Amino acid sequence: MRGGMIFLIVVVAMATGAKAQEAPGLNRLSAEQIAAQVKTLTETAQKSPAGIANVTLEKYPRHYSMLVVRVKTGEVEIHVNDDDVITALDCDATEMTGGTVVDPKTTAPGETRGPRLEGGSSTPVRKGDVVHIAAGTPHWMVLAPGKSCSYYIEKVVVR
Predict the structure, then answer these.
(1) pLDDT (tens digit, 9 = 90+) per residue, 44-77?
(2) Class of the CATH-defined domain 30-157
(3) CA dihedral in degrees (120, 110, 49, 153; nearest 10)?
(4) Measured at the alpha carbon of residue 16, what is the angle toward residues 12 and 22, in degrees to the nearest 5?
(5) Could you tell me how far CA 151 lies from the centroid of its own chain?
(6) Which of 19, 59, 117, 134 is most buried as measured by Cβ atoms within 10 A of its Cβ?
(7) Is residue 3 over pLDDT 60?
(8) Could you say which DSSP state residue 103 is in?
């Protein structure tokens, strides 16, 4: 009887493993795929006057994922309808949050941009850090000359 039970456990484990490999509802990017995307985005960002390049990876009903590379300081952003959850892949930057956006302009429904922030708080962002920025929070990624930041971001719809 014991041998039969072990056989059953092995069969169930194998069947579960086969199902997991099919992975319905699962999207995965390998580290190699991400590295290749970051390399391409870095080349694009270096050629861009804005110093940024990004790609949307996947879209879901309540969030979407992106890869972003910045090679210079960008604009201040406020997203009224979504949180940003950033995972720094390779980064040497400062995230400024709060304060007042100077010369704000609406760039899309629920989206405001501006050239800089007055006031606010600064938080260093380094490789491996995870940063959550709540909807409605002014934020600005500031890079020192010659520095860059690549990151994975989940844009989570909250409103």
Answers:
(1) 999 999 999 999 999 999 999 999 999 999 999 9
(2) mainly beta
(3) 80
(4) 150
(5) 5
(6) 117
(7) no
(8) S
